[in-house]
TrEMBL record:
Name assigned to this protein: Nitroreductase
GO MF annotations, alphabetized: oxidoreductase activity
Organism for this UniProt entry: Leptolyngbya boryana NIES-2135
Length: 344
């Protein structure tokens, strides 16, 4: 693993330029934005800092054209980065003046962020901020421990606060139906050579100079076998591994302490930005309580399966993210580009 690829995770608030210019302070705050999760670890965001303003842009060069043709998941990922920016602003004493989708003529400009007036960080915000550099997605099986009902209800409240909803999949019948949808989506995706090619293109060794993508250990392979990433990439591209992936995901699902669908009332870019912020806030709150998460979004990425999932929830709205939650040992973080690498 390249030291440089992990450096962004080692950011410390002690290094904040308290006496620096607004531009320098905004530059430092970007260090927290880049730690947000993203599909295939594409990190599909780019930023500019000008006139004491951060602009958050969708980086379409990092779009997943086959599994995310409308850029829904791309914008959700950018929403997660925006939540990190919000928390960092509050942590360093600023209210934050944020405008989402500020210019209809520039749809890829997702938000403008200014320091704003003085702000006193709350205890809740502080604990969320501290979890930013600790949160990692896992592909490991979970321990057989239950998540307290009060915690799950807390996560549901957080979703509502950010303009989303969190539906808990409960009962053996509902879980079995969801497992069938995951299996179906896995097989449909892996039967598509273009989707396999797209996925394999983002499978990189942890030491790759791009500082992005999925190393083998992010797919459940022990970190010492990171060199096998190139082999996994080749196998993914040229062979239909749908049955194997479905079986692996079935085992992970069965070990989960909780399964949840995060959704929205609408299905537009502003909804995707909002649900991205809800997602990251839920992940950070969970992390602060020792709970980790894994994503299984294939059923939502495939339109024909997403409609079945939507019907099975028996509620209004649109499923956006499928979450597995539970307890397990800590995992190694995936690579991240530095704050300088994401600016243009």
């Amino acid at each position: 693993m390249s030291h440089l690829s992990l450096q962004p995770w080692q950011v410390s608030d002690q290094d904040f330029p308290l006496q620096g210019s607004p531009t320098q302070q905004l530059q430092f705050i970007l260090n927290y934005a880049v730690l947000a999760p993203s599909g295939h670890n594409t990190q599909p965001w780019k930023f500019t800092i000008q006139q004491e303003t951060i602009e958050l842009w969708a980086d379409l060069d990092r779009a997943l054209s086959y599994v995310d043709p409308e850029h829904r998941e791309l914008i959700i990922s950018c929403g997660a980065a925006l939540l990190n920016l919000r928390l960092a602003l509050h942590h360093f004493g600023y209210q934050g003046d944020i405008q989402m989708l500020p210019n209809s003529d520039q749809p890829n400009l997702l938000a403008q962020i200014r320091l704003g007036s003085w702000n006193q960080e709350t205890a809740e915000e502080k604990s969320l901020f501290e979890a930013i550099s600790q949160r990692h997605t896992t592909r490991r099986p979970f321990e057989a421990w239950d998540i307290p009902t009060t915690v799950l209800q807390w996560l549901q409240v957080i979703a509502v606060e950010e303009g989303a909803w969190l539906h808990l999949v409960q009962g053996q019948k509902a879980k079995s139906h969801l497992l069938n949808l995951v299996n179906l989506a896995d097989r449909l995706q892996m039967a598509d050579p273009e989707i396999r090619k797209e996925l394999s293109a983002w499978m990189h060794s942890g030491s790759n100079p791009r500082h992005d993508g999925l190393p083998a250990y992010a797919l459940g392979v022990p970190p010492r076998f990171d060199f096998l990433t190139v082999v996994l990439s080749w196998l993914t591209r040229y062979f239909n591994l749908g049955n194997q992936i479905a079986k692996q995901n079935e085992q992970l699902l069965q070990s989960a302490s909780a399964i949840a669908v995060l959704g929205t009332h609408g299905d537009t870019p502003i909804d995707w930005l909002n649900v991205g912020q809800a997602l990251q806030k839920i992940l950070l709150r969970a992390q602060s309580l020792g709970i980790v998460a894994s994503f299984f979004n294939a059923p939502i990425q495939m339109p024909e399966v997403r409609s079945q999932l939507q019907s099975s929830l028996n509620r209004e709205g649109y499923p956006q993210v499928l979450l597995w939650l539970g307890y397990c040992t800590s995992t190694q973080p995936t690579p991240r580009r530095s704050s300088h690498e994401v600016q243009f």
